[in-house]
Each structure stands twice: as C-alpha cells, then as structure tokens.
Design brief:
- The complex is a heterodimer of chains A (608) and B (100).
- Chain A is elongated and about 115 Å long.
- In chain A, 76% of the residues lie in helices and 2% in strands.
- The model of chain A has no long low-confidence stretch (mean pLDDT 85).
- Chain A contains 26 helices and 2 strands.
- The N and C termini of chain A lie far apart (87 Å).
- Chain B is mainly alpha-helical and 100 residues long.
- In chain B, helix 1 runs antiparallel to helix 2 and helix 2 packs antiparallel against helix 3.
- The termini of chain B are far apart.
- The chains are: A mainly alpha (608), B mainly alpha (100).
- Chains A and B meet through helix 26 of A and helix 1 of B.
Chain lengths: 608, 100
C-alpha cells in the first residue's frame, strides 16, 4: 500500500489507538494528565499526517469488503480521500489538538480519574469524526455518525452528577436520534433501489443520469433529516443550546467546530445526489435560512455567553445549509471551515472568561478587557470574523454564501440571511460590550488564563486572520460571479449591527429595555425560544405519556385480563374434575372394565 | 364328547365371577380371591386350547402362571397384612389415600 492511502488510514488510527489504550488500561487512564498527554500525542501525529495528506492533495479510495453475501459483499469499509475530506481532516485534527491542549488547563481541577475519562471520550470522538469524514459509503458514514452522537452524549453529560447536564445529554441524544431515524430509512431505501451504499458508484450513476430511482426526492429528504438533527436545523435545533451544559472545550470542539457540521458535510458529500432533486434542495435552502434567522433572534436576548455562541452556531449552520440548498456547496463548505476556526476560537475564549469569573451570565461580567487583554483581543478577532468584517475569514465565506443564494434566485432566503448577518453583528458585539467593556462588576479577581489556554487561542486567532488573507489573495477571481454590490452590502450590514450594539450596550444612547418593549411580541417569543421547547415538552407529556398510559391500561386490563380468565377457568375446571379421582382401587377397576367393554362393542359394531 | 366351546364358556364364567368379586368385594382378601379366580379362568383357557390343538406350549405356560400366581398371592397377602397393621382395617372403601 502506498503512502497516499497509508497516511489517511493513520489519521483516524492514532486517536483510536489512544482510545483503546485509555479504555482498556485503567491505570493509565487514572493518571489524568498522563492520559491527556497520551491523547494529545496521538492527535498531534494525526494532525501532522492530515496536513501532509492535505498539502499533497491526495485523492483516492481504498475499500475492503464488509457484510459478505452471495453476490459479493453488501457494503464496504475503507477510506476515501478527496479535497473535501482532506480539508475536513485538517480542521478536525487541528481543532481537536488545540482543544485537548486547552482542556489540560481548563479541567485541571478535575479528579485524575474524571480527566482520564474525558480524554478517553475525546479520543473516541476524534476517531469517530475522522471515520465519518473518510467514509466511502453511506453505511460506514452512518456507523460513525452514530458514534459521534454517542460521544456527544457522553461529553455533554461529562458532569453527570449535575441534573441539568444529564438532562441535556439525554435530550441531545434523543432529538438527534429522531433525525437519524430518517437518515437510516433513507439509506436503506436508497440501497434497496440502487443496490449500493458506495458514494463513487452512486455519483457515477448520478452524473451519467442513470440513477432513475422512483421516489428519489423522498429518499433524499429522509437522508437530509439526519442532517437536520445533527446540524441543529429547525425544528430539531433545540438540543444544541442545552448541550452547553458540557465543559466549554467540548462545546468548542463538538458543538461548534466539528460534529454539528457533520450534517453540512453530509449534504456537501452527497451533493451530486441532492442536485437531482431540486425540490429537496429548495427545502434545504429555506429551512437553513429560516433556522439562521430564528436562532439569531434568540441569540439577541440570551444572557448566557455560551448560549449566545450556541445560538450563533445554529444560525451559522443555517447559513451553510442555505448555501448547500442553493447549490453553492463550495461556499457552504468554505463557511464550514472558516466557521470551525473562529467559532472554536470564540468558545475557547468564552471558556477562559468563564474560568476567570466563574459565571456564564454576561450581565454579571463587564470591564474584563483590563483584567484579561489577551482573551479580549482574540474574542474580538473571532467576533469580527463572525460578523463578517474583511479581511477576516468569515467575511469571504459569508459573502460567498450570500452570493450563492442570490445567484440561485432565492430572494426569500437571501433576505432572511441578510437580516441574520445584521443580527449576527449585533448580538456578537452585544456580547463583547457586556463582557469586556462597560462597568466592571464586583466580586472575584478575574485573571488572565494560563498559557496552556492562551496558546491555542492565539493560534486560532492567527489562523483566522491568515485564512482570511489567503482567501482575500486567492478569492478575487473565484467569486467574480457574485454581484459587485454584495461585499459593501454585507459589510454595511455588519457595521449597522455594530453601531446598534454600540448605541444600546456601550454608549447607552438607546435603552435596551425600550427596544424590548417596542418589539414586545418578538421579545416575548424569543425569550421563550418560540415555545418550541415547551411544545416538545408538552408533546412528550401529553402525547407520548398519554399513549403510554393507554397502552398500559390495555396491557393491564385487556391482555392480562384474558390470561387471568384463562387461569381462573383452568383452576375451576381442575377443581371440579378432581372428584373423579376417588382414591378407591375398585373404582379404577370399574373404569378399566367399562373401557374394555366399550372396546368390545366398538370392535363388534364398527370394525366390520 | 365335550367340545372346546364348553371349556371356553366355563372359563368366561369363572372370569366373570372373579371380576364381579374384584369389583364388589370390600374386603381386600376377597379382592385377592377374585383376582385368583380370574387367573384360573385364563389357565382353563390355556389348558383347553393346548388339549384341542395338541400343543404342549399351553400346558407349560399354565405351569408358569400357577407359580406366578402363588408368588402374587404371597406378596398380596403380605401387603394386606402390612396395611392392616397400620390402618387396623382392610376395607377397600376406606383405603382411599389417593383421593383427589
């Protein structure tokens, strides 16, 4: 096997080896920091291998047969490397590496056993995510898809003795499972119609226009449902804000940079198939844009800094999905990569702030710029990138998304996304002003985070800037298709959002409370998350529990009733029949004699 | 000349008397006597067939039956005595421990 396949195999193999060692050898796991060092070393090797793979631009596929059947194996496992998976490999390993280093400092107060458990889960997650990215077929992708879901559950519930965290973990698990149900039904339907799980074969047939499958739109919609759950699209986005109960590095890695983008990755990967069904594409675009707007409004009223970032993640995932739905898959994927960088940066910086002040509530922060200038500067860089200010990475990818949606003549989604861009700048600068500027609140002595945490932050900040400059240098000719008025338009929106936030939360020109009163119905709805959580809870309590109660009644009184009647009947019959047994030997002899007599009669009358 | 059927009728009569005794006697010893009669009815049959078919097998079989009958009576009476020692009665109607 040559290097171009050995290296891509090595990338997921290293974290898997780390996971196996940590899982099987408890003494190593219980060392805590030792376990972390092992995991970090493994992921560092993976990162180097991923960079080599990406830099060399390997393209290829190597599969092994799986699930043997009469007519050859039904499915295969293996690795498929192409530009999409190469870029994802680098993003996943890079963010994982930085997050794991950061976690050493962030979780330094944990018991060694818990820290070892944390790194075990982290290694498993990285392996699963890399396996998902490299999957050459839908089946392997689904297996790893579920594995990352499991890791997400385990890591959200890392502090499992907190009821809120345990609830959030279960909620995330069930809601994403709802989408996965559609995903697997879609995969199996597609397989029964085409007889293959393999991407390469499906894409070839899609390009040759020989993929005439009845009901392809339904199948692709079901597969898209998996992406809805995983990538927190409306109406299954409710789990992501709750997932912030996990440790902040976990939020940065799994619930911002990598796992939640799996849905976008799926749509990007299966783009040739989705392209065959324009109606599903339209649904993806509309739902994506709507999700972006909805989440942005909720982020504007949120007081918890991590939840602001969580809603912002939902919103940006909507951006990516809208781009994918508009047929601008490269733009969506580019936004995925840049967003992965600066959202990880924002989360880790928010983690540093939380670590310093010991609260998530932004209204109890303020004036932190002086206490922790490093964190403030990198957070500001992340904010500028997210708001879409040139020449940072977010500007180019966001503009590409907007351009792609405009080119696809989707005016409705375009307007929603434009409004979202305005709101994004607004709520991000609101967070900045509330956290780092303004009046300092008493209590505690906020301090700058240790270098183990600041290092990854600066690295991500530098990468955000560098990626933006690279895009600025190379992107000039790539985006000439977009209308010329778009860049000033999107920068103008970002500026407007910035000015609004400045006026409301820094200068005090506009009173936020008066704005809230003016937009009372919207404010009311957004603060209550548009009633979706309540709706789901009500559905759960009313519908599912009611149904369970009905089933329980039927089981107790109908099914059990039949059995009880049968047993009572048997008892009654046995009770009356036992009197036949008199215990007197002579009665039995009577029986025998009478039987013999009957046999004689039978022989005489019927045997003729 | 007495024919075969006469013997068979005799045997049937003896068997029926024995069966009647087994069914109606309340005394365990009486029941044993009834069984004895039934066995001897069989012996009559065997001897009669041996005689009329000129085959000795029936006679030899009868010898075995008589020997076994003796053993059976010995065991049966032993059981009756054992029961009498425990229950102070050999009335079959009152020996109904296996009643359901």
């Amino acid at each position: 096997m040559d290097l171009s396949l050995l290296l891509p195999l090595l990338v997921p193999a290293m974290p898997f080896a780390a996971f196996l060692i940590l899982a099987i050898v408890p003494p190593i796991r219980r060392t805590g920091r030792g376990a972390g060092a092992l995991s970090i070393a493994a992921i560092a090797v993976s990162f180097v291998a991923a960079v080599i793979v990406w830099h060399s631009g390997f393209v290829g596929e190597r599969t092994w047969g799986w699930i043997p059947a009469d007519g050859g194996p039904i499915a295969t496992v293996g690795v498929m490397v192409d530009p999409i998976s190469n870029a994802m490999l680098v993003l996943v390993t890079l963010v994982s590496l930085l997050v794991q280093i950061y976690s050493l400092a962030y979780l330094s107060d944990e018991r060694p056993g818990a820290l070892g458990r944390y790194y075990t889960y982290q290694s498993l997650f990285v392996f699963s995510m890399l396996g998902l990215v490299l999957a050459p077929g839908f089946l392997q992708m689904f297996v790893f898809w579920e594995l990352v879901g499991l890791c997400s559950y385990l890591l959200i519930g890392f502090w499992y003795d907190r009821p809120a965290a345990a609830r959030a973990a279960v909620k995330a698990f069930w809601i994403t499972k709802l989408g996965d149900l559609g995903f697997i039904i879609g995969i199996v339907l597609l397989w029964s119609a085409t007889g293959t799980f393999e991407f390469s074969e499906l894409f070839e047939r899609a390009e040759a226009n020989t993929l005439a499958v009845p009901g392809l739109a339904v199948i692709m919609f079901l597969i898209y449902l998996g992406a809805v759950g995983k990538s927190a699209q409306f109406p299954l986005h409710v789990w992501l804000p709750d997932a912030m109960e996990g440790p902040t590095p976990v939020s940065a890695l799994i619930h911002a940079a990598t796992m939640v983008t799996a849905g976008v990755f799926l749509v990007t990967r299966a783009e040739p198939l989705f392209a065959l069904v324009p109606e599903v594409m339209a649904v993806i675009a509309w739902v994506g844009a709507f999700t972006a707007l909805l989440a942005a409004t909720m982020a504007c009223v949120e007081g918890d800094i991590k939840r602001v970032l969580a809603y912002s993640t939902v919103s940006q995932l909507g951006y990516m999905m809208a781009a994918a739905g508009a047929g601008a898959t490269p733009a969506g994927f580019l936004h995925l990569l840049t967003h992965g960088l600066f959202k990880a940066l924002l989360f880790l910086a928010a983690g540093a702030v939380i670590h310093a002040v010991g609260t998530n509530d932004m209204f109890r922060m303020g004036g932190l710029f002086r206490a922790m200038p490093h964190t403030a500067i990198v957070f500001l860089i992340g904010t500028l990138a997210l708001a879409g200010v040139p020449p940072l990475a977010g500007f180019y990818s966001k503009e590409a998304v907007l351009g792609g949606v405009w080119e696809a003549h989707l005016t409705g989604p375009f307007l929603m996304l434009a409004l979202t861009a305005l709101l994004t700048a607004f709520y991000m600068f609101r967070a900045v002003f509330l956290t780092f500027f303004g009046r300092a609140h008493a209590g505690g002595h906020p301090h700058e985070a240790p270098w183990l945490m600041r290092g990854p932050l600066w690295l991500l900040a530098v990468l955000t800037v560098v990626a933006g400059i690279r895009l600025a240098l190379s992107g000039a000719e790539a985006h000439e298709a977009t209308p010329g008025w778009l860049p000033p338009f999107s920068v103008g929106l970002a500026l407007l959002g910035f000015v609004l936030a400045l006026a409301m939360y820094q200068r005090g020109v506009i009173d936020p409370a008066r704005v809230a009163r003016a937009l009372a119905p919207l404010d009311y709805l957004a603060r209550r998350r548009y009633g979706l959580d309540a709706l789901y809870a009500g559905l759960y309590r009313g519908l599912i529990l009611g149904f369970a109660r009905v089933i329980g009644w039927i089981d107790r009184y109908f099914v059990d009733g039949i059995l009880n009647a049968l047993t009572a009947l048997t008892l009654r019959a046995g009770d009356s029949l036992r009197h036949i047994q008199t215990g007197r030997a002579q009665d039995y002899v009577y029986g025998v004699a009478f039987g013999v007599l009957l046999l004689f009669v039978w022989a005489q009358l019927w045997r003729r | 000349m007495i024919g075969l059927s006469s013997y068979l009728v005799l045997a049937a009569l003896v068997f029926s008397i024995g069966l009647f005794g087994v069914l109606t006697r309340r005394n365990a010893v009486g029941i044993l006597l009834g069984i004895e009669l039934m066995l001897n009815a069989v012996n009559i049959n065997l001897v009669a067939f041996a005689r009329f078919h000129g085959d000795l097998t029936g006679l030899i079989f009868t010898l075995f039956t008589i020997a076994i009958t003796v053993v059976e009576v010995a065991v049966g009476l032993a059981i009756v005595i054992a029961i009498f020692r425990v229950r102070r009665t050999v009335d079959a109607d009152r020996l109904d421990l296996l009643r359901g």
